[in-house]
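User: Round two. Same drill as before: sequence, then structure, for each protein.

Assistant: Same drill it is. First protein:
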Amino acid sequence: MFDYIKGKLTDKNFPFCTVEANGLGYLLLVNTRTINSLPELNSDIKIYTKLIHKEDSMTLCGFKSKQDRIIFDILTSVSGIGTKVALSLLDEFETNELVDAVMNDDHKKISRTKGVGPKMAQKIVLEIKDKLTKTETTSKITTAQSNNNIITNETTTQVITVLESLGYNKSEYSSALQTVVSKAQKDNPEEILKEVLKLLSIF
């Protein structure tokens, strides 16, 4: 229903913030990481949103980036994970850190999140990794191979699949991917993905 709200930040009192746009004040449920990233009151901001509609309530969640919202959607698609746990996971980890933990089957790292036990962490890794790696890519990229073609097409395709499942398009990830591939010393999709996400988080 709402992709994002662009307006003036009028209040921030964890776990909520209020953004005024066109005379309407939108009350957004946010986590600590998001609220700490917000500017001073009365500043102009753009915040991505997700409407959670339940039988007895409607909640508008706010996210600092589109990628956070996409991961939130993937997390809440796992049975047993609701809004609270998903926001806690995004509090514990940056998007690239969470993806890296999932791709490396590091359920122990994920289980350190409040409200996430060992069994739930294993379930998250299993289901989210499947969703990330099986998302059909909408475009392919021809990457200039280097280092004696050490990076295979299968590896770049796997990395692209995850990037596009996170909402990045070709124009956003192309340069970062080529930079990482050109410097890679081994054909490891998890490491390449991790380095690409680091570069993308800078911009």
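Second protein:
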Amino acid sequence: MEWLDPRYIIETLGAFAYVGLFLIIFAESGLFFGFFLPGDSLLLTAGLFAYEGSLSLWILIPSLFVAAILGDNVGYWFGRKTGPPLFTREESFLFKPRNLKAAHDFYEKHGGKTIILARFMPFIRTFAPIVAGAVEMNYRSFMIYNVVGAALWAIGVTVAGYVLGSIFPPEVLDRYFTLIVVIVIVLSVAPTGWHLWQENGDAILAKIGLKKKAPTAE
């Protein structure tokens, strides 16, 4: 699906790249139909383009940061206005109840910090603010988590792309672009994955008949 390829998207947007990137990050951050958009890889690629000089990092950072915050806000207020009936809404082409349920279960488990952790989890990140609004999470607390999460994700991943551009020569980036993007995305998800493992490792291992190894006394 070429239209979801981050390079293709940015190159196609051309002079409207900043507006397009803003709208895509905004939509994926809190509009329930934005769950399929390539947020992580798009941020990373935007950073690479910034290093190459096609885009300005100093325009990308504030605009993508604001887009991420506003997107989550819209998702929160949509969930707040819709309320619990949202969870019984019928499936449609743009609305997948299973994604909403996954976000709800994640929120029930991790509380407010879900808004930060979910930034690095595709699908969950789109529905997390909607769930937070539906369960009437305190708005001030939500905004704190929202701003922190937006900074870590929108700014952090974009800057990571810029740094990658300074590390790898152009011919390497061209040849191994997809692989490099996948590796960086995996690394960005790793802290969230480790946190979840620390909290849920015992339950996961118990399901497959194993146990976490107890620490040995020195």
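DSSP finds nine helices and no strands in the chain.

User: Perfect.
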